[in-house]
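Appendix B. One record, verbatim.
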Amino acid sequence: MTPDVFLVIVAALLGLLVGSFSNVLIWRLPRGESIAFPPSHCPNCDHRLGVPDLVPVLSWVSLGGRCRYCRAPIKARYPVVELLTGLGYGVIAALFPPLLVGWGALGLMALFTVLLVGSAIDLDTYTIPDELTLPGTALGILFGFLNGRAGAAGGLPDLAGAVQGAVLGAGLVVAINQFGSWVLRRFRERSYPESPIGYQQISLALLAGAWLGPWWGLGAALLSAAVNVAARRVVRVPELLTLGGLLFSVVLGSAGYGPGMILMVQGALAAAGATSLVAGVYWWLKYRGHSADEGADEPADASAMGFGDVKLAAVIGAFLGWERLLLTLVVAVFAGALFGVTQLAMKRENRVKFGPFLALGALVALIWGAQIIEGYRGSLGL
């Protein structure tokens, strides 16, 4: 047995164990419960589970899918999540050999867990917990640092690439959210702007970032938030000025004015993404212990996507880099549209949010992204 095959087997076994822990995350994170205490217990009778009850897959099979103590049914999702994680970890170890990629392989396994857990929670609750995505983004940036020290093998981003991927990922999705929401509101201002930092500051970052670059754009957003704090109220920044101004700016950039259209778009998205992550951390800390995404979304205003999707895109960008992130979004939009049309043809309501499609796109980008990107570059003669 070669070392690479041995590591694939070890990775698959590790995945089974992590899959068991993933089930804990899926159950407890949306409920604001500690993931460590109390120890694993039956959600029906609260009886503490012993080691024989916690063996991945085998315990569920041997118990016939029922609790040993109260005989309540145990969802089939538990062994499915364990098997998927074991399979996913094994595939990652095979495609990105740890002896070649180093820490990057472990990082991709962590990404797989975030995607699987986030998708399962999104399907159940239509939210993606900040406790999953914000630490996940930081973890992706950490692995970018480790990739850089190892030479960024396997086409994985280094520290700079991870930061760029995170802010561009969040920025692209939040920009879609901003303009989609603005259109759905028929270009009316938001009824309930957040204070001190929220969607208005993100829109301001889009405009300022287009002309001044990402970090000055973030600075403008933070200055606006500071004004809100000093005034002790929301000092409105009209979207007609910020979002409308960005559209006008892009037109000017395409005509050769300013930094140029491409740099303006990149600066706008990066500034908005960075502001989104700062806002996400602020609202997470303020509403920590409440339900996922509470305080970050505005139920009274129309929105194209949930803010949880913005942070999930940041996670994907941090781990995979901006090129694979773009592929992720293309696949996610196509898959979501195809699923929606299918549901419409079957006269069913589409209740699946965008998060699971983002996860699907990320897996496609992870497994086939390098070949697709190289093929696309070849078609352009690059």
